[in-house]
């Protein structure tokens, strides 16, 4: 049986970064930039005043100076200044070619058109052309997940259709005779389908698109017909039926659809019966139906895969450090590699983790509040409240 690392390496070996598309800035938030964005002009584009004041020449600062004009942001002064002359100037306005300093308005007295400089030993207060960056400098490097400031930087460079990775397309098939939609009241022996809501939200928060969702009863022939009719997708997720019970048909279904199975179980608790398969560039998972297993395998394998499809980065989920909350009850030992859902919160400047009191992996509402996964050390695991632990953040 594969370890979680072997499973991840196997998934990676069948994954590749998706191609790029151009999208408007309004649709580019959190998308992965694929080409370096470069400055189209020097910034600032001209020598500009850093202050409201007077642009003049240093040579005659101790003499009375005559104000002969004005430069406003967007309205430059188009004459020339001789020694002993100044122009009124405002922040961001172009500096006339023959001025070499700006005197802050607080550092002068003014009578009519004549100013006297009170402080002559001040900086120039000129923002030099290109001092922020030069034409062609990289302003946002390829590979960046675009944040609001990144988008503003692209806008300032006139890049209104950045090239970003296209959104991964996912199809979800939920299986089970016992399932009813959440807006229905379950009859005897039925339960509400909570996994479909979980998957839809997880896909959305990982930058993927749910292109189709279907429910199949536990019958291979109808499930095959339903799945074959799904619109084009990069990743197929099948919920339930991943194990080896008499009615667990996810593996034969994937094989009947022409997928090759790469692993059919991993040394993981919860989430052991995870199936991974591929068909050309399409990837598929059959996830164990238990809601807690569902969430755990999504966080450990599917979320990183969706990242890889978008970024091309092969990283396993990064680990943060925190400590276990005082008085936490801890899950019992197991030979399998255990990842326990926790609630992480910041307390006293560090992360504090409370393991969720889940009675079983079937506890769908007990998962509420989960935002972290704690890899439990192998038995005998001893974790106390003060001890630092590594965990995976699952925002
Ligand atoms: P399975 O993997 O299909 O054997 O399902 C394992 C357990 O998860 C069973 O108790 C199912 O009833 C439950 N289950 C399966 N699918 C869902 C779902 N979509 N929502 C909630 N529970 C589910
Ligand atoms: Mg089932």
- The helicity comes to 10-25%
Strand-residue fraction?
Answer: 25-35%
Instruction: Kindly report the average pLDDT value.
Output: 94
> Within the CATH hierarchy, at the fold level, what is the topology of the largest domain?
Molybdenum Cofactor Biosythetic Enzyme, Chain A
Q: Give me the secondary-structure category.
A: alpha/beta
Main sheet properties = 6 strands, mixed
CATH top level class name of the largest domain = Alpha Beta
Form type:
elongated
What small molecules does the structure contain?
A: adenosine monophosphate, magnesium ion
Number of domains: 4
Number of H/I helices: 6
Rg, please?
A: 31 Å
Protein architecture, described:
A hairpin with a 2-residue loop joins β20 (275-279) and β21. α1 crosses α6 and α3 packs parallel to α6. This protein is α/β, with parallel strands linked by helices and 395 residues long. 17% of the residues lie in helices and 30% in strands. It starts with a helix and ends with a strand. The model has no long low-confidence stretch (mean pLDDT 94). It has 4 domains: 4-18 and 167-311, MoaB/Mog-like domain (Molybdenum Cofactor Biosythetic Enzyme, Chain A), CATH 3.40.980.10; 20-42 and 132-165, Molybdopterin biosynthesis moea protein, domain 2, CATH 3.90.105; 48-127, Beta Complex (Molybdopterin biosynthesis moeA protein, domain 3), CATH 2.170.190; 319-393, Beta-clip (Beta Barrel). The chain has helices spanning 4-13, 148-156, 195-205, 220-228, 250-256, 291-311; strands at residues 20-22, 37-38, 48-49, 53-56, 65-71, 85-89, 101-104, 108-111, 114-117, 126-127, 138-140, 163-165, 169-175, 179-180, 191-192, 209-216, 235-239, 260-263, 268-269, 275-279, 282-287, 319-324, 337-347, 350-355, 372-376, 388-393. The strands form 7 sheets. Strands 7-4-6-5-9-8 form a 6-stranded mixed β-sheet, with no helix packed on it. It binds adenosine monophosphate and magnesium ion. Residues 174, 176, 178-179, 191, 193-196, 239-243, 245, 248, 288-291, 362, 364 line the site of adenosine monophosphate.
């Amino acid at each position: 049986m594969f370890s979680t690392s072997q499973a991840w390496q196997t998934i990676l070996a069948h994954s590749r970064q998706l191609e790029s598309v151009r999208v408007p800035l309004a649709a580019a938030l959190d998308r992965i930039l694929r080409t370096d964005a470069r400055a189209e002009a020097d910034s600032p584009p001209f020598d500009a005043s850093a202050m409201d004041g007077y642009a003049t020449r240093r040579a005659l600062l101790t003499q009375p100076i005559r104000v002969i004009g004005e430069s406003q942001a967007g309205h430059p002064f188009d004459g020339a200044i001789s020694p002993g002359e100044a122009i009124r100037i405002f922040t961001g306005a172009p500096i006339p070619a023959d001025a070499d300093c700006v005197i802050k308005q607080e550092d002068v007295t003014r009578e009519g058109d004549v100013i006297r400089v009170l402080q002559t030993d001040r900086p120039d207060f000129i923002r030099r052309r290109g001092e922020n960056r030069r034409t062609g400098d990289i302003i946002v490097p390829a590979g960046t997940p675009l944040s609001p400031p990144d988008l503003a930087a692209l806008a300032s460079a006139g890049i209104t259709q950045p090239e970003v990775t296209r959104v991964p397309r996912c199809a979800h098939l939920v299986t089970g005779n016992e399932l009813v939609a959440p807006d229905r009241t379950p009859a005897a022996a039925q339960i509400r389908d909570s996994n479909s809501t979980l998957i839809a939200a997880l896909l959305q928060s990982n930058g993927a698109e749910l292109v189709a969702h279907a429910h199949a009863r536990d019958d291979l022939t109808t499930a095959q017909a339903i799945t074959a009719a799904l619109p084009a997708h990069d990743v197929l997720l099948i919920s339930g039926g991943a194990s080896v019970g008499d009615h667990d048909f996810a593996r034969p279904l994937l094989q009947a659809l022409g997928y090759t199975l790469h692993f059919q179980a991993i040394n993981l608790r919860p989430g052991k019966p995870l199936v991974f398969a591929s068909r050309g560039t399409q990837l598929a998972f059959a996830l164990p139906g238990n809601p807690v297993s569902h969430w755990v395998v999504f966080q450990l394998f599917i979320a990183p895969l969706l990242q890889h499809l978008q970024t091309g980065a092969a990283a396993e989920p990064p680990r943060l450090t925190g400590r276990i909350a005082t008085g936490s009850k801890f899950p019992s030992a197991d030979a399998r590699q255990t990842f326990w859902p926790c609630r992480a919160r910041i307390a006293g400047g560090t992360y504090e983790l409370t393991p969720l009191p889940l009675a079983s992996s079937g506890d769908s509402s007990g998962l509420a509040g989960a935002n972290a996964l704690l890899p439990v050390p192998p038995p005998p695991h001893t974790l106390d409240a003060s001890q630092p632990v590594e965990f995976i953040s699952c925002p």
